[in-house]
Specification:
mainly alpha, 3 helices
């Protein structure tokens, strides 16, 4: 297995690695490798057709009014313009 020394991680990334290691009960090295693999798109189940998680923070944040407004805004996309296809 290859070894690599990485400098300049910064406090925020170092904390993220420590949190992951603590959460998973694993070493800092394994946590760092996991984050590197995830960032490189090499994490198992993460292929080119996999949708990322960048919008996960929005899950469960919409109110019923927000959802109704979005449905109203998108409603016209449900209509087929038959003249376009003739």
């Amino acid at each position: 297995m290859k070894q690599l020394t990485i400098r300049g991680l910064g406090d925020e990334l170092t904390r993220a690695i420590r949190r992951l290691a603590n959460r998973d009960g694993t070493s800092l090295n394994r946590a760092a490798v996991k984050l590197l693999r995830r960032g490189a798109g090499l994490e198992r189940g993460q292929g080119r057709d996999t949708v990322g998680s960048s919008l996960d923070h929005l899950i469960g944040t919409w109110s019923d009014a927000d959802a109704d407004e979005m449905e109203r805004a998108l409603r016209h996309f449900e209509t087929i313009d038959k003249g376009m296809w003739e």
